[in-house]
Each structure stands twice: as C-alpha cells, then as structure tokens.
Amino acid sequence: MDIETTHRELVAAQLRIAFGSVAAFERAYGLPTKSVNDVLRGRPNARVKAAISDVLDKSKSPKKQSELSDCNRKCAASHRISGAGK
C-alpha cells in the first residue's frame, strides 16, 4: 500500500489490526506520540512513513491457508446437503 494514495483511515485500520492501536504501533517502532496522525494528515516525516510502509508491506504478504480449507472446497460437492447425494 502506498501511504499517499491510500485513504488515511484504511492505513490507521491496518495499523490497528497489526498492533491493536496506533499508539501501540508508535511505541513498538519508537516513534513520537501522534506522529502517525501527523503523517496521515500530510505532514512529512520520512522515518514514520518508512515504519508505516514496513507494516503495510508485511500485511500484504500472502496468508497461509488452513490445512482444512482445501478439503472443504473438494468435499463440499460430495456433502449430503449439497444435493450430490440425491
């Protein structure tokens, strides 16, 4: 995700998903309080932007599927409720 082109609430939501709160993200990266808010409102800060980009890039990495997800897709057709047993 690019910080400049992504809506600021979406960026904040991704940080909250990853850290629980924007303040927890700031503490984890050793950033000043309210620095993320300043960047999202347009105030330039290269260190904060780099930290946000690092987290957003990590959140874009492919997620591992559960071991059962493939079976669920394959077995759905043979399930008695799906009509295949008729």
Which terms summarize this structure?
86 residues, 0% strand, elongated, 53% helix
Summarize the structure.
The protein is mainly α. Helix content is about 55%, strand content about 0%.
Describe the structure.
- Helix content is 53%, strand content 0%.
- The chain is built from five helices and no strands.
- The termini are far apart.
- The chain is elongated.
- It has helices at 8-19, 22-28, 35-40, 46-59, 69-75.
- The chain has 86 residues and is mostly helical.
- It has a domain at 8-59.
Q: Mean pLDDT score, rounded?
A: 81
Q: What is the CA-atom radius of gyration, in angstroms?
A: 20 Å
* Biggest sheet descriptor: none
Low-confidence stretches: none
Please outline the helices and strands.
Elements: H1 8-19, H2 22-28, H3 35-40, H4 46-59, H5 69-75
